[in-house]
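Try it yourself: sequence plus magnesium ion, in.
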Amino acid sequence: MAEKLEVKELVQVFNNQEVLRRISFSVKEGEFLSILGPSGCGKTTILRILIGLLQPSSGRILKDGRDITKFPASRRNMGIVFQNYALFQNMTVLDNVEYALKFTGEFKGSSRSRAESLIEQVGLTEHIRKKPYKLSGGQQQRVAIARTLAMNPEIILFDEPMSALDAATRLLLRDEIKEIQKKFHSTMIYITHDQEESFSLSDRIMVMDRGIIHQIGAPEEIIKNPAGDFVRDFVIANLQRKINSLAKYMGITTPERASASDREKPAYGL
Ligand SMILES: Nc1ncnc2c1ncn2[C@@H]1O[C@H](COP(=O)(O)OP(=O)(O)O)[C@@H](O)[C@H]1O
Ligand SMILES: [Mg+2]
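Structure, out:
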């Protein structure tokens, strides 16, 4: 797979403080990369730089090998899904999605039928004439995803899209995001502070803290080979705690005490 996006030695200084400290990473075409780290570590700052809302103090961004660091947001062809949906509350679901199609001006066919088809793909056909505030948080987030897909971006960025949702809705939406990625083959960058979310969704995870990258790897690589104390504490210990409390709740043996044959299986599908 070709590199879709390359980030080179990105530095961001706010008030004389280095919030991003020469970070470099790349994302392949069609890949799902999550950026996992505690609150305040610099995740949203990376995303704002990628999408063109913020000029970095130094460093470069390449898309398909081309330097886009100085490109305005409108020329980057990236879509974003925020935590708070950012929908037009006075417009119906259909109008919200169709508006995005008109806005881009790229789509030549019937914007109405394309919008309807996207809404169907996120499972909201029966709500197509409703205003967003009539919908649940999970449904509103699906409208926001349909709207982003409508713009046909090369890269879709998510900034903690599930943080306002309850646990059950998160699970549903997680599956849906995975499905959408399979269907649209989009390159996706997904920001989260939730270990479980990143491990269940991603091809690769970039673990960061305080403006530096601690490890970039596939979920199984990170579990088998955590790069240091931060990854062990923030990622592995956290997942282990969740597994243990789930096991306790279900009254089953915890992984440490599982039989040798069980140990060869991947731990709970992670
Ligand atoms: N516009 C800004 N001006 C000053 N400091 C900022 C600004 N944006 C973010 N920061 C600081 O940069 C750090 C990283 O913020 P952010 O990227 O939002 O973290 P995250 O998304 O991982 O929670 C935080 O300490 C935050 O207070
Ligand atoms: Mg953030």
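One thing you can check immediately is this: Residues 43-44 surround magnesium ion (ligand 2) (CB under 6 Å).
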